[in-house]
Amino acid sequence: MHPPEFLVFANDAQLAAIWAGMFLALAAVARVAEARRVRRARIDHVGWVPWTGLFLVCSVIGITLLALAAKGLLAPGA
């Protein structure tokens, strides 16, 4: 199995932007899961996943990667 063409010829900025998108998507999933957990019917079923912390960590990593990738993506000749 060969990797996709857009990953083989991607530069570092493009790879960072792809990773940023994945982290931000995971942060969005964690945010939705936290909202579902808050609206649950039985308050005594707490759950074990720290969705808020996971959301914050993934958001910070994703935004940082996106900011670092933006400079390389917007540079002339990239």
Descriptive keywords:
78 residues; mainly alpha
Classify the helix fraction into a percent range: over 70%
Structural class: mainly alpha
Terminal Cα span = 28 Å
- From N to C, what is the helix and strand string? HHH
Percent of residues in beta strands = under 5%
Compute the CA-based radius of gyration. 17 Å
How many domains comprise the coordinates? 1
Largest sheet, in brief, is: none
Count of helical regions: 3
Based on Cα principal axes, name the global outline: elongated
Strand element count: 0
Unreliable residue runs = none
Oligomer: single chain
On the 0 to 100 scale, the average pLDDT is 87
Transmembrane segments: 13-33, 45-70
Keywords: Membrane, Transmembrane, Transmembrane helix
